Here is the input.
Amino acid sequence: SEIPVAAVVGSFPVGSNDCNEIKREIISAINLGADEIDIVIEPRDADDYPNETELEKLITMRNTSKGKILKVIIETPLLNERKIRAITRMALAAGVDFVKTCTGKRGSCSAKDVKIISYELMRHELTFNEKLGMKISGGIKDKKTIIEFIDIINKEDKNIILEKRFRIGTSSLIDKLLTTQ
Here is the structure.
């Protein structure tokens, strides 16, 4: 089968504050052949985060990337639990295909982040009968961490992994996995 092309768009590793820029970048990536779009929804250090500003960005991302896989990066290392839950719920309600933990440029993915997002995916599925996915990335450097994260996800909802709604992003682990049996 064909390998899908994923494109990181926006002002990676930070997110754009301009919906028109978001739209232009997604359209450009799709025109260049992208099958999947990865984009950061920039966290704000404000009590009202996320609010209608983030909702407008998420809707712009989803509407512009229709027909393509949309992975929204929420930058969990910069957020407290309430904000992780809130932006995850908002992203899922806006129709993203995958919620991605972080870029890895501003901190690492934690077990707590994985637990929160996998719970919110399960909650969304039970509430809306919609099966969406998650991508864990950022600071994943060994097989032990991957196994720990998979165990956490399986405790929340085994179907996330069984139904291929789970992805791992790691730039430093592939060589280790290929050389270790």
Remarks:
- Residues 111-128 form the longest helix (18 residues).
